[in-house]
Write a structure and sequence with these properties.
Organism: Brachybacterium avium
Strand order of the largest sheet: 2-1-3-13-6
Strand content: 5-15%
CATH topology of the largest domain: D-Maltodextrin-Binding Protein, domain 2
Distance between the termini: 35 Å
Number of helices: 17
Number of strands: 14
Largest sheet: 5 strands, mixed
Function: Part of a binding-protein-dependent transport system for a sugar.
Pfam family, one: SBP_bac_1
Main location: other
Subcellular location: Cell envelope
Helix content: 40-55%
Oligomer: single chain
CATH superfamily of the largest domain: Periplasmic binding protein-like II
Structural class: alpha/beta
Number of domains: 2
């Protein structure tokens, strides 16, 4: 399965530490083997927890002699979990495996010498053939691979409450042609007395920002933001930031105190017309017994080009893992056909593997499978595919300053340009 316009994430400038490849029994952790496998994630609630539960059930079936230890830390997009994880890694107390987003989010861990190369497992588990070539390229740095993906998610999805749209005089079957048309619909919905666009804390605002940038700039220019080929000071970026600001004005004022689950619940409860969130949100609509097409709808935010906002959850083998063999068993389960299908059915994602039967997947996932196969691919900023963590953190801080009214569009754009320049040269 080949896709076009994928951002090539090279190893240039990322001087990865020389890490030992995964070996046999005992691995890098040393000591006596243990039956416990500590798995560190931020899947602590909602559909994310349902997905984790599905993986655990498969793991216990695959490896009945091992005991899963849940080290999940609540907090959307893993902000709280990443802080705690970094403290543990720096203290020499790693979990057996931890969740990370595939892509440049891993660069900081690699540079710090905190991850083992798991390339051998790709051969042992047959993953090189099971995963798309583009995904394997994304995961490869200096001919080594440091994580195993459990799924594929899409970040740039607009979710709708059909009844709320109809009450506002908006035809739910008509997809806005571009961002300006979408803003007009959100304004119309807000005029009817509901929240036009529900949103949560900073990371969800960055998710909105990336969706607007993808739609307004198109895949080539959006991808160029992260390679230096697109000028952050350009007029097209100005337009996108103006659109972002207009949408923020149409969101709930308590956004900074909410997570994505709260923002989605506003839609489920009929308090909001739209949200822009990754497709893990579909599981929340399904769990609320809302019917696809009748109660809720969805479409990618678009400027005319079909774009798939890409991210993937993945798992690692940390240097010094207490139970490296247990971690490898977990990596086996999450990359297996059964593990990937069960997980994605529960979480709203699609399998990273291309050799699985997806006939039983619901309507939304069918559209995502089709889009992933043929649309232009743009790596998610908010979810670790586009940049290292430091760059994302800087953008998040600038976005929070902007959405709280502490800067204007010109100041926001200037700060984003400065952030890009400093991180590109780091």
């Amino acid at each position: 399965m080949q896709r076009r316009n994928f951002l090539v994430l090279s190893g240039a400038g990322l001087a990865a530490a020389s890490l030992a490849a995964c070996g046999g029994s005992g691995g890098s952790g040393g000591g006596e083997s243990s039956s416990e496998v500590e798995v560190f994630t931020w899947w602590a609630q909602g559909s994310e927890k349902a997905g984790l539960d599905a993986l655990v059930a498969q793991f216990e079936k695959d490896y009945p002699d091992l005991t899963f230890v849940n080290a999940s830390v609540a907090g959307g997009a893993g902000s709280a979990a990443k802080d705690m994880l970094q403290s543990r890694l720096q203290a020499g107390d790693p979990p057996d495996t931890f969740q990370a987003h595939a892509g440049l989010e891993l660069a900081d861990y690699i540079d710090a010498g905190q991850l083992e190369d798991v390339s051998d497992l790709y051969e042992e588990y047959g993953l090189t053939d099971a995963f798309p070539d583009d995904l394997v390229t994304l995961l490869t740095l200096d001919d080594q691979i440091y994580s195993v993906p459990s799924n594929i998610h899409r970040s740039n999805v607009v979710w709708t409450n059909v009844a709320v749209l109809e009450a506002a005089g908006i035809d739910p079957s008509v997809v806005p042609a571009d961002v300006e048309a979408f803003i007009a619909d959100v304004e119309k919905a807000a005029a009817s007395g509901v929240t036009g666009l529900s949103i949560g804390t900073t990371w969800t605002q960055v998710n909105l920002l990336e969706a607007v940038l993808m739609a307004d700039l198109g895949s080539e220019s959006y991808n160029g933001l992260w390679t230096g080929e697109t000028d952050w000071s350009g007029g097209d970026v100005t337009t996108a930031l103006e659109h972002f600001g207009a949408l923020i004005e149409l969101t709930n004022t308590d956004r900074d105190g909410l997570d994505w689950t709260d923002a989605t619940q506003m839609q489920i409860d009929g308090e909001a017309a739209y949200s822009i969130m990754g497709d893990w949100a579909v599981a929340s609509f399904q769990q609320a017994d809302l019917k696809d097409g009748e109660d809720f709808g969805y479409f990618p935010l678009s400027g005319g080009e079909a774009i798939f906002g890409f991210l993937a959850d993945s798992f690692t083998l940390p240097v010094g893992a207490p139970n490296p063999d247990g971690a490898k068993a977990w990596l086996d389960t999450i990359s297996s056909q059964e593990g990937q299908v069960g997980f994605s059915l529960a979480k709203g994602s699609i399998p990273a593997r291309t050799d699985v039967d997806t006939e039983e997947f619901p309507a939304y996932q069918q559209t995502a499978i089709e889009s992933y196969a043929q649309d232009a691919i743009c790596p998610s900023l908010a979810h670790g595919a586009a940049t290292p963590v430091a760059w994302l953190n800087d953008v998040s801080d600038a976005t929070s300053k902007f959405t709280t009214g502490a800067s204007d569009v010109a100041g926001f754009q200037e700060e984003l340009a400065t952030i890009a320049e400093s991180n590109a040269s780091a």
